[in-house]
Amino acid sequence: METIELPEIPRRAARSHKGDYGKVLIIGGSETMIGAPALAALAACRSGAGLCRIAAPREILPHVIVICPCATGYAINAREIKGLLAFAEEHDAVAVGPGFGQGPVSRRVVLELLQRHSGPLVLDADALNILAALEASEWPVRSDWSNVVLTPHMGEFMRLMAAVMKRGGDIALAAAALGKTPEKGATPQRGHAMRRTLASGDDDLPSTADGIPLEMPDSSPPEPVSGFQPVALTTAPALARQGDGDRSALAELLSRGTGCVVVLKGHQTVIADGPRMAVNQTGNPAMATGGSGDVLTGVVAALIGQGFRCAEAAVLAAHVHGLAGDMAAAQIGPAGLLATDIIAMLPRALATRLAAEGNALPTGPR
After folding, report:
1. b/e map 139-152, b = 16+ CB within 10 Å
2. CB distance 151 to 263 below 8 Å
3. SS3 track for 181-229
4. Cα angle 70, 313, 251; round to 5
5. Rounded to 5, what percent of the chain is helix, strand, coil?
6. Beta pairing, strands 231-232 & 51-57
7. CATH code, residues 19-356
8. Which region, left, alpha or beta, applies to residue 108 given φ > 0 means left and ψ of -120 to 50 means alpha?
9. CA geometry: angle at 187 spanning 183 and 193, to 5°?
10. β-strand 276-279 against 270-273: which pairing, if any?
11. Which has the closest alpha carbon to 304: 292, 316, 313, 315?
12. What is the pLDDT of residues 33-75, one digit of tens each?
């Protein structure tokens, strides 16, 4: 297993402008969840995104923009999804899902983005629930899944994993990551830049991307593919009580099974990019509050927009997000933290990270 190292934050050039630091689009929001996309957008702005835009249903968009006035808006028209897809192409990173609901328009937006938008995507909240609810035949066709980031908490993970197992599909990934070569003539590959594609097989067992057979909870094990050991999943509550090593294995399993970068949120958030792994060490229980996940989504999107690769952006985002939460808790206390308190500390957390790299920002005029 490889470790994803915490990347360094480059110092900003004196003559830079907002166009140099990425255009981020947040897609989400619904009548009862106006705050979610606004929190993600605020977090993206506080994490250094040069420009942030919010796409939300027309009837709530003005209210969302009031919460995050530094962002501009795009009104989602249920009859003109193609316009939203074209708008998404103007951005360096797109995050979809916060507060979006799971209605037909949301479902279409998520699936169309996965199929038609080739740039980096961050999927959170309802976007994950939409994926988890798909039938095996409904999964979108995407040429490259390696620039998709999934950010599930444990409950969302279990639903997603069940959907992946139900698909029974196989993703052309490197079995070499486990030092094994599957039969069926697959060619081992390896590398971060590798393209990952979904391809279903009529007689495939439910499996990970490497061809490791999976079994549903409390079910009899499937027949193993030669050369591989079956991987069993138990129920979410039992998994949540187990150690970090088990969570790491689960994050890797979902990453291999989808071809995506996985951010398995919770105590010591785990980031998996196939065989590459990182376990975050920042954060505290005061961050267990509504909207904290939306904040993390915005940070991930902002860092991708600034040029970080998806896995490295996820690792740095988890670190900075947790560090901001630690700073907020130190000021406010061990409980009662708001998501906006974490957002307020993001610039300070980034500055702390820069200082740790010996790359501190200047504090006076130049």
Report:
1. beebeebbbbbbbb
2. yes
3. CCCCCCCCCCCCCCCCCEECCCCCCCECCCCCEEECCCCCCCCCCCCCC
4. 125
5. 40, 15, 45
6. unpaired
7. 3.40.1190.20
8. alpha
9. 140
10. antiparallel
11. 313
12. 999 999 999 999 999 999 999 999 999 999 999 999 999 999 9
Place of tokens 């999934």: 150
Closest CA to 268 of 311, 321, 310: 321
Which amino acid would we find at residue 273? D
Q: Are strands 170-171 and 148-150 parallel, antiparallel or unpaired?
A: unpaired
CA angle 11, 318, 272 (to 5 degrees): 110
Best CA proximity match to 254, nearest among 359, 194, 167: 167
Q: Alpha helix locations (H) across the chain? A: 35-46, 61-67, 81-88, 104-116, 126-132, 154-167, 236-241, 244-258, 292-305, 310-332, 339-356
| DSSP code at position 146 | T
Do 225 and 213 meet the contact criterion of CB atoms below 8 Å apart? yes
Query: Which tokens hold the place of 69?
Result: 């006035």
Residue of 357, 275, 360, 363 whose CA lies nearest to 319: 357
Neighbours of 6 (CB within 10 A): 18
Closest CA to 174 of 277, 309, 278, 276: 276
pLDDT digits (tens, 9 = 90+) for 86-129: 999 999 999 999 999 999 999 999 999 999 999 999 999 999 99
Confirm whether pTM is higher than 0.90.
no
Rounded Cα distance, 62 and 7, in Å: 37
Q: Is 185:147 a contact under the CB 8 Å cutoff?
A: no
